[in-house]
Amino acid sequence: MTQLRTFEFSAVDLDGLAERQGRIALLVNAEGRMSPGARRLNRLTKGALARLLEAERWEKAKTGEVISLAYPAGLAAEALDVVKLERRPSVAEARKAGAALASAAGGKALTLVGEGTARLEHLALALALRGHAVVNHKSESAEAPEPATILCAKPEETGKAAASLLAVAEGVAFTRDLVSEPANVLTTEEFAARLEALTELGVEVEVLEEERMAELGMNALLAVGQGSAAPSKMVVMRWKGAEGDPLALVGKGVVFDTGGISLKPGPGMEDMTMDMGGAGTVAGVMKALALRKAAAHVVGLVGLVENMPSGTAMRPGDIVTSMKGDTIEILNTDAEGRLVLCDVLWYAQEHVKPAAMVDLATLTGACIVALGHENAAVFSNEEGFAEDFLKAAKTEGEGAWRMPLGQAYDDMLKSPLADMKNIGGRPAGSITAAQFLKRFVRDDMPWIHLDIAGVAKLKSASLLAPAGATGWGVLSLDRMIRERFERKDG
Mean pLDDT throughout 454-468? Predict the structure, then answer.
C-alpha cells in the first residue's frame, strides 16, 4: 500500500531557514504584506521575494496559487514556493493552496512557514491527498513523499486538528489503493484479507463464506459470482466507538465485471477493475473512523464477487430468490451490482439492526450519462437524511446531486414471471436501479443510495486527487458521521 506525506508541526523558528533542504513554502496575502518569516526570507534571498511581490505576476495570481523561485540565492533549498493566501482563508481556499503546493513540491521535503495563518490543518490535508501517488506495479515505483514541517503559531493545537483530518486522508488513500489494484491482485480473497487487517486498528471483522451465505438465502449475490472460480464473500466490519444502533454502510465489491453472459464490449473493459469502488469507499471510511477513534457506532458491509462468463454463470432468463424472499428475473447479467447489494442490504437490516443505511456502488453507466464525472447521484427515502449528506458533501467539496424516486419508475421493474426484473430498460437507468434497491429497504429505515460510477475514478486530476482513483465519498461520509452519528462529549 502507498504512503501519504507525514507532517510535523513546530513552533516558528526562522533561524534555521537558510539551511533547510528540499523546498520552503511561504504564505503571503494578496497585498504582499510581509510577515516576520517573509522578511527573513527576503533578506536571505537578497530581495528576490520583494521583487516577486511587487511584480504584475503576483498581482494577477489567484488565491491559492503558487509561484516558485527556483534555486534562490541565500537558501540551501532548491526552491521557495510562495503561496497566495490570506491569514484567515476559507476551508476551500486553504485546501486549494495545499493542492497547488503539492503539485509544485512533488515528493520533496517541505518546510512551510505558516506562522499565524488559520486552517493550516486543511492545507495539510490537501497537501497530503493531492500529492498521493496511488499504488502501481511498475518495476521502479515512486518513493513515498518526504516529510513536511509546518512552522506555526500554535503547533500543538494545529497538529491535533490536522491529526483528525489526516486520519481521514489515510482512509481516502486506502480506498484509492484498493480501487487502483488489478483484478488478478485484488481478488475476492485478497480483498477480504486486506479488510481483515483492519482488526489491527480495533475494527471487528467477520467474513461470511459461500456456504454461510447460501444458508442465509443470499442467492442473488451468489448468482453473480457463480460463474467465477473466485469464491464470493461478504465482509462485515464493525467500529464500535459508541453505544446504540449503528449506521450501516453497504458497498458493492465486484472485483471485476465482464458483464457475465451479457458480455461487455472489449474496449474499456479493463476499467472494470474499479467496479468494487463502493466497497472500497466503505473500507476507507472504516479505516478513517478507527484511526481517528471516532465516537460512533458504524458497521460496514461489503459483498465481494467476480462477474465472469462460464458454463456455471447465471444466464439471462434465470430467476433467483433473494434473501428477502422476493424473486428476481435476470434480463441482463451486467446489471449485477444491484443483485449483490440487495442481499447485503437485507442482511444488514436482519442482523445488524441499523439506525440508518447508506449504500455505495459504481452501479450504472446511466449515472455518468446524467451527471458526467462531476457529481455522484444521491437517492434517498428521507429528506432530512439526504440533506445531511448533501450538506456534508458540499462542505468537503465532493460533487453530489439529488435524484428522484417514484412509483412510475418502480413500475418499470414489473415482471410477468417473478416479483421483479433486474432492469427497467434504457430510460432513467440509474433511477430504476435505485428503485430496485429501494424494494429491499424497509419503509421505516432511513436510507441513501449513492451511485458513484462517474466519480470513483477520473482520467484527469481533480482538486484533491491525481488522475485515477479518487476515494470519493470518504470525506463526505466521515463528515456526515461526525455531525449526525457521532456522540458529542457532554
Answer: 96
Q: Which amino acid is at 219?
A: N
10 Å CB burial of residue 353 (0-12, 13-18, 19+) is exposed
pLDDT at site 488:
81
For residue 288, which of 128, 152, 112 has the smallest C-alpha distance? 128
Exactly one of 23, 40, 84, 338 is catalytic; which is it? 338
Q: Is 154 known to be catalytic? A: no
Distance CA(484)–CA(490), nearest Å, equals: 16
Q: Report the length, in residues, of the chain.
A: 490
> From the candidates 240, 264, 391, 439, which is the catalytic residue?
264
Unique residue bearing C-alpha cell 493552496: 97
* pLDDT of amino acid 383: 98
* pLDDT band for position 487 (cuts 50, 70, 90): confident
**Grid cell digits, residue 144:** 513515498
490 band by pLDDT with thresholds 50, 70 and 90: very low
Residues sharing a CB contact under 8 Å with residue 477, sequence separation 6 or more, in sequence order: 249, 281, 285, 358, 389, 392
Quote the CA–CA distance of 161 and 120 in Å, as a whole number.
Answer: 9
Whether 264 is a known active-site residue: answer yes
DSSP state of 201: G
Is pTM beyond 0.85? Reply is yes
Residue 87, C-alpha cell as written in the block: 491569514
Say how far apart CA 485 and CA 247 lie, in whole Å. Answer: 7
Helix, strand or coil, per DSSP, at residue 79: strand
- Helices 120-130 and 155-180: crossing angle, nearest 10°? 20
d(CA 336, CA 330): 9
* CA gap 243, 236 in Å, rounded: 18
Helix, strand, or coil (residue 485): helix
Residue-wise burial string across 98-135, b where 16 or more C-beta atoms lie within 10 A, e elsewhere:
bbbbbebbeebbbbbbbbebbbbbbbbbbbbbbbbbbb
